[in-house]
Amino acid sequence: MMRLSTKGRYGLQAMYELGKNFGEEPLPLSEIAKVTELPVGYLEQLIRKLKKDDLVDSTRGPKGGYFLKRDPKDITIGDILRSLEDFFGVTECSNESGVCGKENSCPSRLVWIAIADEINKKIDSMTLQDMVDGNIKRTR
What's the confidence (pLDDT) of residue 1? Predict the structure, then answer.
């Protein structure tokens, strides 16, 4: 089973809160931390990565806080997870070439690539707006 790190899981929760708030006043990080029950310090690290990848922005001052840079319907779950995760894939060889000397003769590599392709297809088909609206359905 593929597992996401806390970066991906917690960052997705933070983005969900920002998505629910889209078009409103910026959300202070303390409010996001309160709702998600996540540490402010850790959220700061995650928001920094999301900001670097142009998914969120911030304003300072009394009404300052964080907000989405794009409409939630234009942000995929894949955008968020790829921004936050240091490694996102099934195996290293399913993400890039040249990491294994058996790359051209390994029968398993094609399996890992096929699985990675399906995962990427799925997370790129779901948007943050789908998540906010509760439109993500289980398939099993």
Answer: 46
